[in-house]
RNA sequence: GGAGGAGUCGCAUAAUGGUAUUGCAGCAGAUUGCUAAUCUGUAGCCUUUAAUCGGGCUUGUGGGUUCAAGUCCCGCCUCCUCCGCCA
């Protein structure tokens, strides 16, 4: 959420930004509704003032005066009720539209409508070449007996999976290595709830209910499954004032993520690439506003350290205006080489790192206080993926397969998994 | 899940239905003069203003009763005690 006072002062700028980000929002409507809201609130306050005045005279009044005062206040009460209803109505409309206004963008964010507008800024490693006919990860998963999509389809439906045998060790090893990397960089590890209040989800910039929602909502209570631990990690500091000397606060969250993937049928949806549930280690930071730009680079550096240690070929993209999420001010994606994307291989998203400036903090109401000046202001928040497990397993399987049908475990993970390679094996069930 | 109790500023506390008290801490100022003490002021949000003054809202939260609600009634949240269930 942006500051309404900032919006009012910079309507043209906001409109241009909204247009360039291809956000479907009516900025004029927000301005108009806010004007109405303010006007109604002021008239309400005036009537409340009169009502309070009458109540104040009541105590010392005699019987007949009280009768008069009472008669006087009845009309006011009715008017107050009417105006209150009007305010609730306008407020709902206003909030709904207001929440759609995206964050501002950094000056170096490229123009562009969608993923094709993203700008590659770095390529590390070469796309994997094979001296034999490689298999995709779904076929590999079957031969190695480590993935089972058919059984998951029976149990839950499409886009679910069972990990089996070495894939399980690989998942746990990836999580463990990612966590140790995070801890090395000063993050406090946490495991989080995987269900959150809709309020917290909204505050993080996601919409829990509605047709385009990516979120699974529960029927019991105003609760939903989290799409990412970014939601719960941000919520950790909701309504908090952090002493400035305690910044930055760096948290690394381990959780499952649940996504409906509404409207993404067929698109790069084979196997593990796009699934309804996966494990992720997330990096999250609350920082001083002056520091967020530098910290954003640090977040990317940690992500790169991870994928370099895994020896996977990847590229880094600076995301264009049209492909940024609503809360993001600037965002990097890392895409790992995946031999079976598109025709003859391509790069597929494995991480993202976003600087959300004060956009999330304003809605989460997370502030910091300078002890000397006493100044209170919103913190900046950043989030990034340490590891999204399923896509990383996909990349390891497809890139590290050998002519003899085995898959080599990256050296860094060998201690964490207790494996050097995964061999094909007969499937008993 | 059931029964009972509680929730007031960072902490601690007060308030026969009458418009949120006091102490400590922190912060600001004054004074004294030095491992600090004393005095004064100081909650948040919205609104108004050049800035003040002023107005409104806020006792976990949302409703209700009332001229008036921390106080009475109802829903929800959180915590405590006990019971049940359970990895």
Could you describe the 3D structure shown?
By secondary structure, this protein is α+β, with helices and mostly antiparallel strands. The protein folds into 2 domains: about 5-100, Helix Hairpins (Orthogonal Bundle), CATH 1.10.287.40; about 115-420, Bira Bifunctional Protein, Domain 2 (BirA Bifunctional Protein, domain 2, 2-Layer Sandwich), CATH 3.30.930. Helices cover about 40% and strands about 20% of the residues. It is built from 13 helices and 17 strands. The protein has helices at about 5-10, 10-20, 25-60, 65-100, 135-145, 150-155, 165-185, 200-205, 230-235, 290-310, 360-365, 390-400, 410-415; strands spanning about 120-125, 145-150, 160-165, 190, 195, 225, 240-245, 250-260, 275-285, 315-320, 330-340, 345-355, 365-370, 375-380, 380-390, 405-410, 420. The strands form 5 sheets. The chain has an 8-stranded mixed β-sheet with strand order 1-10-11-12-15-9-8-4, sandwiched between helices. A 3-stranded mixed β-sheet has the order 7-13-14. Helix 3 (about 25-60) packs antiparallel against helix 4 (about 65-100) and helix 7 crosses helix 13 (about 410-415). The longest helix has about 35 residues, at about 65-100. The model has no long low-confidence stretch (mean pLDDT about 90). The structure holds one RNA strand of 87 nucleotides.
Write the layout of secondary structure elements.
Layout: H1 4-9, H2 11-20, H3 27-58, H4 63-98, E1 119-124, H5 137-143, E2 147-148, H6 149-155, E3 162-163, H7 166-184, E4 188-191, E5 195-197, H8 198-203, E6 223-225, H9 230-236, E7 240-243, E8 249-258, E9 277-287, H10 292-309, E10 314-318, E11 330-338, E12 346-355, H11 359-364, E13 366-369, E14 376-378, E15 380-388, H12 389-400, E16 407-408, H13 411-417, E17 421-422
Parallel strand pairs: 4-8, 7-13
Antiparallel strand pairs: 1-10, 2-3, 5-6, 8-9, 9-15, 10-11, 11-12, 12-15, 13-14, 16-17
Helix pairs in contact: 3-4, 7-13
The protein binds one RNA strand of 87 nucleotides through residues 38, 41-42, 44-46, 48-49, 51-52, 54-59, 61, 66, 69-70, 72-74, 77, 241, 371-372, 374.
């Amino acid at each position: 959420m942006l500051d309404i006072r900032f919006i009012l002062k910079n309507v043209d700028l906001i409109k241009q930004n909204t247009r360039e980000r291809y956000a479907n929002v009516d900025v004029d409507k927000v301005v108009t509704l806010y004007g109405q809201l303010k006007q109604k609130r002021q008239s309400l306050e005036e009537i409340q003032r009169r009502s309070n005045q009458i109540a104040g005279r009541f105590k010392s009044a005699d019987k007949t005066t009280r009768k008069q005062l009472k008669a006087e206040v009845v009309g006011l009460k009715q008017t107050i009720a009417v105006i209150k209803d009007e305010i609730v109505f306008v407020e709902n409309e206003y909030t709904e539209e207001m929440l759609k206004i995206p964050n501002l963008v950094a000056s170096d964010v490229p123009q562009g409508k969608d993923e094709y507008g993203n700008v590659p800024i770095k390529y590390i490693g070469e796309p994997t070449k094979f001296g034999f006919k490689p298999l995709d990860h779904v076929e590999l998963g079957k031969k190695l007996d480590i993935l089972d999509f058919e059984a998951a389809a029976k149990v839950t439906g499409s886009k679910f999976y069972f990990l089996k045998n070495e894939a399980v060790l690989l998942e746990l090893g990836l999580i463990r290595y990612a966590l140790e990397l995070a801890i090395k960089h000063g993050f406090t590890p946490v495991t989080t709830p995987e269900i959150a209040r809709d309020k917290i989800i909204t505050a993080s910039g996601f919409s829990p209910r509605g047709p385009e929602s990516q979120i699974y909502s529960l029927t019991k209570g105003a609760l939903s499954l989290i799409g990412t631990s970014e939601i719960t990690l941000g919520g950790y500091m909701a309504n908090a004032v952090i002493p400035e000397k305690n910044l930055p606060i760096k948290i690394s969250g381990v959780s499952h993520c649940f996504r409906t993937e509404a409207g993404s049928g067929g698109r790069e949806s084979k196997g593990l690439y796009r699934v309804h549930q996966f494990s992720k280690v997330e990096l999250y930071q609350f920082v001083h506003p002056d520091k967020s730009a530098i910290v954003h680079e640090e977040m990317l550096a940690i992500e790169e350290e991870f994928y370099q240690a895994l020896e996977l070929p990847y590229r880094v993209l600076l995301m264009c205006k049209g492909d940024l999420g609503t809360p993001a001010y600037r965002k990097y994606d890392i895409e790992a080489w995946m031999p079976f994307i598109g025709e003859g291989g391509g790069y597929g998203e494995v991480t993202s790192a976003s600087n959300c400036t004060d956009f999330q903090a304003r809605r989460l109401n997370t502030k910091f206080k300078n002890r000397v000046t006493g100044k209170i202001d919103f913190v900046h928040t950043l989030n990034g993926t340490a590891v999204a497990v399923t896509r990383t397993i996909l990349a390891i399987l497809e890139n590290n397969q050998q002519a003899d049908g085995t898959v080599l475990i990256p050296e860094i993970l060998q201690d964490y998994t207790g494996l050097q390679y995964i061999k094909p094996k007969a499937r008993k069930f």
